[in-house]
Specification:
By secondary structure, this protein is α+β, with helices and mostly antiparallel strands. The protein contains four helices and four strands. Helices cover about 55% and strands about 15% of the residues.
Length: about 150
């Protein structure tokens, strides 16, 4: 007769992984909505570009970028480290895009970055950076079960 101890480790997604997954899904949805709302042109003037929900100027490149951020977020959600990297990296990029929206509302002739996109990009930057820079691994719960074998 013997005794065996087995350990089961239960891990869930960390806050960074949830954020990467949720942002990823939302970015993909925004890209798809942008494509169907007329964002298949290369118009870069925020005043003349098609607008998503009547507020945010989009064009083909803009939608492709949203799609890329979405795919990146979903892929990064697999591990805590990659999710944290996504949040910090995407947050930094969106901070740059917010500033560029002020400096060049037409994204140097490529992407409409002005108008309401400036504020949206700033909010995205703050949210992503906040999660990424404060992300910690959630506590791992360990359960030990002792069984007796005959």
């Amino acid at each position: 007769m013997g005794t065996a101890a087995t350990t089961h480790v239960h891990t869930g997604r960390t806050a960074a992984q949830w954020a990467a997954l949720i942002f990823g899904i939302v970015f993909i949805a925004v890209a798809l909505l942008g494509f169907v709302s007329g964002g298949m042109t290369m118009e870069s003037d925020p005043a003349r570009a098609p607008h998503l929900i009547g507020m945010f100027p989009v064009n083909l490149l803009h939608n492709v970028v949203h799609l890329a951020f979405g795919i990146w977020g979903i892929a990064a959600a697999r591990t805590h480290a990659s999710a944290r990297g996504y949040c910090v990296g995407a947050g930094a990029i969106y901070a740059v895009l917010a500033v560029l929206g002020w400096l060049s509302p037409n994204g140097f002739g490529l992407v409409p970055l002005g108008g309401n996109d400036i504020g949206l990009h700033a909010v995205l930057a703050i949210a992503l950076l906040a999660v990424g820079l404060t992300a910690r691994r959630d506590a791992v719960r360990t359960e030990t079960h002792t069984t007796t074998r005959a």
